[in-house]
Fold this sequence. Notes:
Blueprint: E1 5-9, H1 28-32, H2 38-47, E2 50-53, E3 57-58, E4 61-62, E5 64-66, E6 72-74, E7 80-83, E8 90-93, H3 102-106
Antiparallel strand pairs: 1-2, 3-4, 5-6, 7-8
Amino acid sequence: MSEPRIAALHFTPRPGSPWAQVRLGMTWAEVRSLGLLRTELSHRVRQGRIVFDPPLTRKGQVIAADKGGAGVELVPPRCQVRPCLCCRRPFESEGPGNRMCVECRARNVSPYAI
């Protein structure tokens, strides 16, 4: 199987920026050899600013895929059923930082509320 290469760039780098050296056809390793941080590169891939062909995958899931130039399909976060920290009712959490249900988030429980 061939190594993923950059198929599209959806950003305009400032002159003199390290991102100005990124070109179409480069592999992940070639881009990393430019001295760019892995986290910044991954962020731009998830945002759809850098599109690889074939799409990059992590643990079998596509990180970001180009739909023929019509936009970028980002992988939705995996939902998990967790109990709400306030009311203890189970709800579909969007991630480890989401521990309260929508109803409890909307309530104003401040002692200074009028």
